[in-house]
Amino acid sequence: MLNNDRLLAQILLLALLGACLWVLAPFASTLFWAAVLAFASWPLMRLLTRWLKGNASLAAGLLTLGWMVLVAIPLVWLGFNIADQIREVNALLHNLQVSGLPAPPAWLGDIPLVGDNLLELWATVDEQGTALFAQLRPYVGQVGNWLLVRSARIGGGMLELALSLILVFFFYRDGPYLAAFAERMLARLIGHRAEHYLELVAGTIQRVVNGVIGTAAAQAVLAYIGFSIAGVPAALVLGLLTFGFSFVMVPPLVWGPAVGWLVWQGDYGMAVFLGIWGMFVISGVDNILKPYLISRGGNLPLVVVLLGVFGGILAFGFMGLFLGPTLLAVAYSLLSDWLVKEVPEAAKKEAILPRPEHHP
């Protein structure tokens, strides 16, 4: 006979769990990034704790302060630079509306086939500047609204990042207790396989972190080499910017303007070289190195890793870079365990077939 008291307790427990998830839902991405950051840098936490003779709270505070300095200073610098660029663009538009276009550059007419047409277009725009600006004003307003919306999203992202840097302190300090709690909870749900799945999730996230950081470092080095060969000034700074932009998978925002600057300087040969280098080397290495580093050392087939990385990004945004491979890894392991228990002949055949090796 059904135990009404136990059923009522289970319903209340599910309701309590749902209410807790509802409360935490606005902070889901913040908690996720704090957890990923703490997990990725956990070796530093262990080393610092050992240096401080086991004082985990002090180690967590120092490491969190270090992350705040490393992240906050570049963001403030980037914010001031964006504000300066916006002021310069507004001043340029005002000058163009008042005094028209400046004289065309000397190299514009020397462009083969289209040079004369470009000079005529330049003169036409200069003569009809006022009317052109009047026609473009509605579109400028739409672009301004679009930029305003994106700026609000960027501001919200900055707030989430700041909150993540605060929450990472608690993940550092209470990391061992949280791991033990997760293991006990999984043990109640799936029994002795809990440790296996925890190691699977931890290993997958660690490989994704290694893949993201390793790919970013490789793209930064390749970008620095390309900028140095092309003679672009501040090649080291641009290489560091490439390292940062590679995390959001948009390195062209760095090497693209560099190509435009070379064209503006009239150095067409180096502009072509840097464009090809950026497209096929700097950006192309992401499609090869990242899946390899993520799949290296794991039992997942490479195609599953690729589907997890790109499908996760399409489904969840940048968080999907970690969620996609992790979800597929857990699902693949669950199906493998089910096949071993339910279809032992298939498991034996799988054991006979050679596995693809992942070379370091």
TrEMBL record:
Pfam families: AI-2E_transport. The chain crosses the membrane at residues 58-80, 154-172, 208-227, 234-256, 268-289, 301-334. It is a multi-pass membrane protein. PROSITE patterns: PROKAR_LIPOPROTEIN (PS51257). Keywords: Cell membrane, Membrane, Transmembrane, Transmembrane helix, Transport. It comes from the Bacteria. The keyword Cell membrane applies. InterPro entries: AI-2E-like. It is found in: Cell membrane. One of its GO terms (cellular component) is plasma membrane. Its main location: membrane. Belongs to the autoinducer-2 exporter (AI-2E) (TC 2.A.86) family. This is Predicted PurR-regulated permease PerM. The lineage of its organism: Bacteria, Pseudomonadati, Pseudomonadota, Gammaproteobacteria, Pseudomonadales.
